Amino acid sequence: MSAAPPPPRRPGFPARLPSLGHAQSSPWVRAAASAAATVSGWGLHSAAVCQRLVQRLAVGGVPSPLVLQAMGQVPRHGFVDSALVAQAYEDTSLPIGWQQTISKPSVVARMIELLLGAPLAQQHGLGRVLEIGTGCGYQAAVLSQVAREVYSIERLRNLHEKSRSNLRPLRLANVHLLLGDGMLGYAQGGPYAGIISAAGGQSLPQAWRDQLAVGGRLVAPVAQENGQQMLLVLERSEQGFTESVLEAVHFVPLKSGVA
Ligand code: SAH
Asked: Which residues form the pocket of ligand 1, taking CB atoms under 6 Å from any ligand atom?
């Protein structure tokens, strides 16, 4: 792979993101970051536009430098159809085919930030993460920048294949793509320091609770009794589970089986 030049900076934008703390010095974070930084075809223009998105996210309330840096490493335009490339760095969800959507960048950032807030991640950096709903693979790529290993499950064969080809140029050795029903989790890869769902169900599948490590966090949209989907954070401790219901969100439905 050829080394890409560093992205140009806009006036007023810090030349360097603030220190990322101990997690930045983790070897897997550095290795993954350098892999993403050398993606071929990641042109100067796209890199600059991506940095503007990062800047907007920072202003819009994503305080974690680690998450902002990860978002700045992933070329989102490589995950959407060519007709939508002009919108790739807007803070909006976009169609990716098969009635599914690529998540809104601010929501991706928010959920990953919540994962990083788990006690285990705070102490040791984020270890193994399970993502339910690979879709086009964008969030898996962002996760690969902050986690040691990413296991990402998709139930739609077509999207599973699409994510594989979208991710191929990034050569992210720590992303493992799986075709399957994410409601069953992926016990072989667990227990997980983080579980993140990009699809919303009526309740949290038992397998997710079982596969969450002590000190880990699960972040997922779940429908409440009134039908409103809310972002839920479940943290596991030696004593059991603590659940927090956060803001309202709009995710595609969590469905069972492979199609
Ligand atoms: N993470 C994606 C978002 C994809 S949208 C991104 O970066 O943009 C959510 C995805 O969840 C859809 O592709 C949908 O097919 C998938 N999904 C829904 N239920 C699922 C299940 N039980 N197991 C695995 N994937 C599921």
From this structure: 100-103, 132-136, 138-139, 153-156, 159, 181-183, 198-199, 252, 254-256
Helices (H), strands (E): how many in the chain? 8, 11
Supply 189's token pair.
């890869």
Task: Give the number of other CB atoms < 10 A from CB of residue 147.
Answer: 33
- Structure-derived torsion over alpha carbons of residues 105, 250, 121, 21, reported in degrees to the nearest 10: 30
Rg (CA), the chain: 17
> What's the predicted TM-score (pTM) here?
0.86
Q: Is the pLDDT of residue 26 over 50?
A: no
**Is the pLDDT at 120 greater than 90, yes or no?**
yes
- Per residue in 80-91, pLDDT tens? 999 999 999 999
Cα(96) to centroid(ligand 1), Å: 11
Q: Could you list the active site residues?
A: 103
Helices 27-37, 65-73: axis angle to 10 degrees equals 30
- Average pLDDT across the chain, whole number: 87
Q: Residue 45: which pLDDT band, with cuts at 50, 70 and 90?
A: confident
How far is ligand 1, taken at its centre, from the CA of residue 173, in Å? 21
Q: Tell which one of 144, 254, 256 to mutate to probe ligand 1, the residue whose CB is within 8 A of the most ligand atoms.
A: 254
